[in-house]
Amino acid sequence: MDIQNPDPTPEENLPAETQEGQLAAVTAERDQLKREKAEAEDRLLRSRAEYENARRRAERDRLEFLQFAAADMVKSLLPVLDDFERALKTETTDEKYAKGVELIYQRFLETLKKAGLEPIEAKGKIFDPNIHEAVQRLTTEEAEDHTVLEEFQKGYNFKGKLLRPAWVKVAVKP
Fold first, then answer.
1. What are phi and psi for residue 91, nearest 5 degrees?
2. Which residues pair with 166 in a beta bridge?
3. How confident is residue 130, by pLDDT bands cut at 50, 70 and 90?
4. How far apart are CA 119 and CA 107, in angstroms?
5. Were both Cys, which of 18, 113, 143, 147 would link to 14 (CB 3.0–4.6 Å)?
6. Rounded to two decimals, what is the model's pTM?
């Protein structure tokens, strides 16, 4: 027995091989706990990333739904816009009435443009089947082949996506 340490611990009484075996077991347990901790941290990081991705996806889906709903509403208003355009083309003797219809049309069109409506320019442009719908073809030498000669119904984009193609008359070379 040691004078300095009157009460020896049980480990001090064990042979060296047993102490080394216990040290190896403790080291192995420590390493196992480190691996488990690393795996738990990895799972936590992955869970956080999955949650963040799901949150972003839900927000994107919500915005797309709102945009789709707005596009549907604007599309339902296009016939009213067409009626205003036809009203402006009719001749009337009442200038004040014609001016009032034109002001209402302009205000309505500007409101729809602020919401994201974009008219498609067609007349004089080259026919593009992505944005134009040919409802008539005219064989002529007076215009370039596949040039839009006349627009029967305006086409529109809504926030960069085609809402309605323009109905057009297209020149065709003989």
1. -90, 140
2. 132
3. very high
4. 15
5. 18
6. 0.63
Position 1 scores a pLDDT of 47
Amino acid 149: pLDDT: 93
> What distances in angstroms separate CA 131 from CA 49, 124, 153, 167, one per listed residue?
40, 14, 12, 9
CA 93 from chain centre, in angstroms, equals 49
- The pLDDT mean for the chain works out to 88
pLDDT, one tens digit per residue, over 94-108 is: 889 889 999 999 999
The answer to whether 107 and 84 are in contact (CB under 8 A) is no
> Position 99: which residue type?
K
Percent of residues, the chain, with pLDDT higher than 90: 67
DSSP 129: T
CB 128 within 8 A of CB 105: no
State the virtual CA torsion across 81, 85, 87, 92 in degrees, nearest 10. Answer: 150
For 27, the enclosing helix (H) or strand (E) is helix 16-89
CB–CB of 144/167 below 8 Å? no
Place of tokens 């593009």: 128
